[in-house]
């Protein structure tokens, strides 16, 4: 009998609904005690009052029972949807904990799914990757891994290595069947094919940073250019203070937004100017710091004023010009600026933040700029994380050694040992259930309830 575990599977805070999830042998006892349904039909939605140990109704809930062997974890499971109020959730949670049920550890549901062989380790990792995906493409690729796309490739590699081992071992067992030069060449060529396949698969790891990191978009400009007004227009509410007094924004203000396929940290900054005022000068330094690692820099200029040449001293040489976009703001006022003054390579977008005109153009140009920097194509539609990359690299080291041994044609037993070593590294990608330490390390990074 396994412990029965429970977790709140939805994020904290107020919401229309929240979900509690249970896994273990006590699930059917709970349906009997709390909902008075002793033998629920699996995968059927019930609407019931949740009655606690004292018989008091805590909420009206929708629940679904999953039978042993036919659930995510492979154990009996129960999912309860209640109203998304923290007091309601706490009351239900406390009541469940009063039975012999304990709070789930992070990732414990998925760990149980893995241990009961419902999914392999690569699929378990895909669950965490899907939940934390930072871009549409990362989410799509994680879903493909979860469906078994990576596991299929791993199993193909395993098959090919096993074939190779059996051919070599046949020679070891029957040395009188001389391999001959052509057969030996064939083995080397098969080894090279496996090596190349693993190598190509491993390179998918290198595009991870472009798939799985949030993008950073920074608004800079002279004081009063309208940065905060534009910032508020993009985020959709009054996040930053706007005023006609130059030097209003001091600390930078950051807000996470989503533009099409990417999560973005949009950052409003203090206006750039030479100042001896201590706090403002700290703000200016903060702005300069924010330019580091920025994916897109919007230079907001006020078109009703002359060209602010001073601003370009801050966008020093090491910022690539394709990351910089000029936003000509206040186009509802008479134009004073001359656009001939801009460095030629910069894109220019014309808007009035105050009148909410041209904001979609800003969003479009930002999206295009980010897309153009995202090289996410690869011949395999898979996601490879660091752990998997390390396993692939170690496997390939052994494959290379085996190939060298085969080329020298001296010790087939040693080549077979190396190939078995490679097989073991490849196997770690989809997982051995006996490596407790590795499993604990891996699942502790999951969220609770998953
Ligand atoms: N006419 C006009 N006024 C604008 C426009 N955008 C901003 N303003 C005004 O310009 C003034 C400064 O706007 P902010 O958004 O606070 O400017 P900022 O660049 O954040 O200024 P600092 O935080 O001081 O660096 C405010 O009075 C805004 O209402 C615009 O498109 N047209
Ligand atoms: Mg401001």
Task: Tell me about this structure.
It contains 14 helices and twelve strands. The strands form two sheets. Strands 3-4-5-2-1-6 form a six-stranded mixed sheet. The protein has a six-stranded mixed sheet with strand order 8-9-7-10-11-12, with helices on one face. Helix 12 packs antiparallel against helix 13. The chain starts with a strand and ends in a 7-residue tail after the last helix. The mean pLDDT is 91. The structure holds guanosine-5'-triphosphate and magnesium ion. The site of magnesium ion has 6 residues, from helix 9.
In short:
The chain is of the alpha/beta class and 450 residues long. Helix content is 43%, strand content 18%.
Layout of strands and helices, then pairs:
Layout: E1 4-8, E2 15-23, H1 27-35, E3 45-51, E4 57-66, E5 77-84, H2 86-98, E6 101-103, H3 108-115, H4 121-132, H5 136-146, H6 149-173, H7 180-203, H8 208-212, E7 215-221, H9 227-235, E8 253-259, E9 262-268, H10 278-290, E10 296-302, E11 324-329, E12 347-350, H11 359-373, H12 386-408, H13 412-430, H14 436-443
Parallel strand pairs: 1-6, 7-9, 7-10, 10-11, 11-12
Antiparallel strand pairs: 1-2, 2-5, 3-4, 4-5, 8-9
Helix pairs in contact: 4-5, 6-7, 6-13, 7-12, 12-13
The structure holds guanosine-5'-triphosphate (GTP) and magnesium ion (MG).
Magnesium ion binds near residues 227, 240, 248 and 268.
